[in-house]
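Q: What structure does this chain adopt?
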Amino acid sequence: MKVIVAVISILLVWPVYAQKLVDPDKVAPEYHDAAVKRRSEQINQMECAQKANMGHVLPRDRTAFIIHCLDEVGPGEH
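A:
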């Protein structure tokens, strides 16, 4: 019984950690440029995280790997 409750609680909490991609069309016009920039940053972060997954980077080295990857990509590049 305890195992079932633990599994259900984990499954209910899982989506909380996911961050949605910013949709520039759904923000106020004055924030459109910032939303476009944020979306680009989010896509770069997801690509670097995917590279870390595919490269089987250890959890202890994952943050450094992603930061290095983002530095290589550069700001605003996508």
